[in-house]
Design brief:
Layout lengths: L5 H18 L4 H8 L3 H8 L6 H10 L3 H14 L7
Helix pairs in contact: 2-3
């Protein structure tokens, strides 16, 4: 099994954001305005360039995907027991 690269995931996320944006008939500028970021930020996100976690979470929220992401995080937290750091 070939490991998934960070670059590949960033590109896939960018493709997903672009697809969702186009499904909602939004330009990059319109999406940027709704998210409170610059058009260049959207362009970088869609191109798989170094987006911040905040930008990613804003995009997920904009496209009603944030709850799915939170569920995944919660499932991972609940399915694995980690030793206490204290």
């Amino acid at each position: 099994m070939t490991p998934i690269s960070i670059k590949d995931i960033k590109l896939e996320i960018g493709e997903l954001i672009r697809l969702r944006r186009k499904q909602q008939h939004l330009s990059q500028e319109e999406l940027a305005e709704k998210m409170g970021v610059s058009r260049m930020t959207i362009q970088k996100l869609e191109a798989g360039k170094n987006a911040t976690v905040d930008t990613l979470l804003k995009a997920l929220r904009q496209f009603d995907l944030l709850e799915h992401f939170k569920e995944m995080v919660d499932n991972q937290k609940n399915s694995q027991s980690y030793p206490s750091l204290y």
